[in-house]
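Please fill in the sequence for the structure shown.

STRUCTURE ENCODING:
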């Protein structure tokens, strides 16, 4: 390789690194702006009550994220709601608790739950047929969001679906 080719390759590599850095910065700026726009709409999340009854079912899996209802691809980015993580879904008579790894627990009160169903995809995450448990619920601010959870064993959805329909 001669020195002209080497210099050209180094310049191309440097330009490529700068372009990638700019694209990452623009993506992060878009994520932050979306969070600012959604902050007022989402408001504060409900806290877990001091006392709850016994857990009726426990499911291990992945917290997929939250989306603004009814747009299954409009991801909520406020706080840590937009980050996927390993999670445990615990069903109580008073509501549903999502214990998420490296994120705050998410409490969904029973009186806020509008619907619980299975979906093929949500927030860019596509699974097998009926692979994602989607919980539509109303926030204290009045907005409705869908919270997605993908279980390690999809057969465990039946218990949660049955309890919600009662």
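FILLED IN BY: designer on duty
SEQUENCE:
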């Amino acid at each position: 390789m001669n020195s002209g080719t080497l210099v050209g390759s180094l310049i191309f590599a440097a330009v490529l690194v700068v372009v990638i850095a700019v694209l990452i910065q623009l993506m992060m700026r878009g994520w932050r702006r979306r969070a600012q726009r959604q902050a007022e709409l989402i408001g504060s999340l409900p806290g877990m009550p001091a006392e709850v009854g016994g857990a009726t079912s426990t499911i291990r899996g992945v917290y997929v994220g939250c989306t603004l209802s009814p747009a299954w691809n409009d991801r909520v980015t406020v706080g840590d709601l937009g980050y996927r993580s390993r999670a445990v879904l615990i069903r109580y008579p008073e509501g549903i608790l999502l214990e998420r790894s490296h994120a705050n627990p998410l409490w969904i009160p029973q009186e806020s739950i509008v619907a619980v169903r299975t979906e093929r995809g949500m927030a860019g995450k596509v699974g097998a047929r009926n692979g994602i448990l989607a919980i539509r619920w109303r926030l204290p601010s009045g907005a409705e969001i869908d919270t997605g959870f993908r279980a390690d064993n999809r057969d465990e959805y039946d218990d949660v679906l049955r309890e919600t329909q009662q």
